């Protein structure tokens, strides 16, 4: 485990130097803008006719009230979706950073040298995954911190009050973490087994593997947050399924990997 941790740190440091912390700065900007847009954007928007989409009594996860103590349903709804939006951000960042972790080893043949040594395949792939998760975690922490700071400043400026539930706090941690693990694992799977489906050096471009990586953050996870009485059990289920699926994908990657496939691309 110590060897895996050391390799993950080394891979992450190399990718950080190559990418020049672009993803982290992007996360900071998005996190700050998200907070400002949630609290300053909708204001007292009229929700007539939108009751099926935006419940007038709130979602149960959070509540946002104006200076008079009246509930702001649109702002409350958008804030309830903040964990899912941050999860989407983390998933996208993972699809951008993980290929950079493996690109040099694949293009330069370094992965063949590593696999020829005493390091087991599964341990090496866990190291790549760990490096991707370290970079993704940095983006997640920065995005969450800037979101919190910008939200606090905006709330004070607009004289709003916010009530947060335990489930919302758990969602703010579990959702981005789960999406980071799954997105990084799926991207690693594509980069090593099906390099043609994931254009490593294409920046924001990508194929079906990237879609697979971010799909849960786009569809399944936001739905979980709309189940007020089942949020905590659903979040536990999301976390368990994500971890089990990621372990299965890493195992599949280790068994199916052929260095000639990636070196010939």
Automatic annotation (TrEMBL):
Record's keyword annotation contains Transmembrane: yes
Key words, A-Z: Membrane, Transmembrane, Transmembrane helix
Parts of the chain that traverse the membrane: 23-41, 77-98, 131-158, 164-195, 207-228, 234-254
Protein name: Putative membrane protein
Biological source species: Corynebacterium glyciniphilum AJ 3170
């Amino acid at each position: 485990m110590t060897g895996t941790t050391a390799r993950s740190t080394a891979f992450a440091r190399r990718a950080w130097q190559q990418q020049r912390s672009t993803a982290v700065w992007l996360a900071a900007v998005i996190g700050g803008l998200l907070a400002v847009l949630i609290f300053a954007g909708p204001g007292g928007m009229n929700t007539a006719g939108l009751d099926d989409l935006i419940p007038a009594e709130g979602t149960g996860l959070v509540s946002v009230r104006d200076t008079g103590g009246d509930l702001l349903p649109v702002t409350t709804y958008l804030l309830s979706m903040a964990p899912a939006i941050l999860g989407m951000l983390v998933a996208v960042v993972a699809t951008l950073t993980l290929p950079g972790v493996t690109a040099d080893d694949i293009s330069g043949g370094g992965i063949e040298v590593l696999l020829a040594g005493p390091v087991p395949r599964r341990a090496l792939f866990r190291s790549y995954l760990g490096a991707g998760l370290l970079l993704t975690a940095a983006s997640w922490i920065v995005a969450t911190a800037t979101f919190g700071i910008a939200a606090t400043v905006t709330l004070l400026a607009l004289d709003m009050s916010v009530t947060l539930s335990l489930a919302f706090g758990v969602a703010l941690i579990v959702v981005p973490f789960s999406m980071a693990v799954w997105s990084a694992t799926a991207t690693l799977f594509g980069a090593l087994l099906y390099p043609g489906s994931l254009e490593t050096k294409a920046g924001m471009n990508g194929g079906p593997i990237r879609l697979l990586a971010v799909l849960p953050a786009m569809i399944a996870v936001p739905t979980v947050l709309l189940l007020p009485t089942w949020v905590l059990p659903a979040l536990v289920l999301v976390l368990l399924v994500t971890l089990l699926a990621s372990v299965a994908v890493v195992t599949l990657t280790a068994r199916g990997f052929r260095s000639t496939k990636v070196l010939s691309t």
